[in-house]
Structure formats: structure tokens, C-alpha cells
Write a structure and sequence with these properties.
The protein is mostly helical. It has one domain. Helix content is 84%, strand content 0%. The protein has 5 helices and no strands. Helix 1 packs parallel to helix 3. The protein is globular, with a radius of gyration of 19 Å. The two termini are 31 Å apart.
Length: 166
């Protein structure tokens, strides 16, 4: 019964997250929309798996998931900015018309954005750990490593032609 309530709560929170974060149709290029959908699907999958693995209580779920959604929205925006800055830096390299100062400013902005993404991830993990039991913390560490490794392995297979995705 509690697992059903948690699942319904999680699905509801994710629907709110998805609806609040969507832009009007036609405002984003198709590739960005697909990338956004992929990101949201991965966030939802991670949240569902995390709920199962950590065996979160209803109270823990009610505290953790709003912060998780905020953290993911903030990271998505930072990653969008990072992609834009990387694209700008590539254009500067390709054009060959930029000054050393312009390159330095671009590199500094990218480093700052990467630092901000890592800081936001750490802030969420600190928040999460303040609400978990020691056993749940241990489960989270293992879950996080295995989940990320699994994503990397699947991405590697996608890059190889003719490979099936498991």
C-alpha cells in the first residue's frame, strides 16, 4: 500500500515537473525537444529507481522529491548554458578571428558553469544525506555509481553500429 502511494506521489510530482517545465510547442528546435524529453525521462527513471532502492518512507519522499525536481531544473538550465558556451567557443576556434582575451573569457565561463553544476549536485546530495538513514546513505552511494555506470555502458553501445540496446 505504501509503495503504491509512493509511486502515485512520484508520478504526480513528475507530471507537475514536466508540465511546469514545458515550453509552448514550436519554440524549441526538434533536437533540443528530443534532448529535453530524454533528460526528463532519465530524471524520472532515476527518481523511480532511487525510491525503490532506498526504500524511502512517505515522509522522506515528500521532503526529497520537491528538492530533487528543483535541483534537476537548475542543473538543466546550467547545462543548457554550458552547451551554448561550448558552441560559442567552437565558433571562435573555427573562425580564427578571436583574441586571446576572448578565448580566456570563454574558457573561464565554461569552467564556472561546470563548477556550478558540480556544486548544485553536491548541494542536493548534502540535502539528501541529511534526510536519510545510514543504511539508505550506503544504498544511495552504490545506487548512484551503478546507475551512472549503466547509463555510460548503454551510451557506449548506442555508439556502436549494429548493437542491441538492453
Amino acid at each position: 500500500m505504501i509503495k503504491k502511494i509512493l509511486l502515485i506521489t512520484l508520478i504526480g510530482l513528475n507530471l507537475i515537473f514536466l508540465l511546469a517545465g514545458q515550453k509552448a510547442s514550436g519554440q524549441e528546435p526538434r533536437g533540443q525537444m528530443q534532448q529535453g524529453n530524454l533528460r526528463r525521462n532519465l530524471v524520472t527513471l532515476r527518481a523511480l529507481r532511487m525510491t525503490q532502492v532506498l526504500e524511502l518512507t512517505e515522509q522522506q519522499t515528500a521532503m526529497i522529491f520537491p528538492e530533487l525536481n528543483r535541483a534537476e531544473k537548475e542543473k538543466a538550465e546550467l547545462q543548457r548554458q554550458l552547451a551554448l558556451e561550448i558552441r560559442n567557443l567552437r565558433q571562435k576556434i573555427d573562425s580564427g578571428k578571436s583574441t586571446d582575451e576572448e578565448f580566456e573569457a570563454g574558457v573561464q565561463k565554461i569552467r564556472e558553469l561546470r563548477h556550478n553544476i558540480q556544486a548544485r549536485e553536491q548541494a542536493f546530495e548534502d540535502f539528501l544525506f541529511s534526510r536519510l538513514t545510514p543504511v539508505q546513505k550506503a544504498r544511495y552511494i552504490i545506487f548512484s555509481l551503478e546507475f551512472n555506470r549503466g547509463l555510460m555502458e548503454r551510451a557506449q553501445r548506442l555508439r556502436q553500429p549494429g548493437q542491441k540496446i538492453k
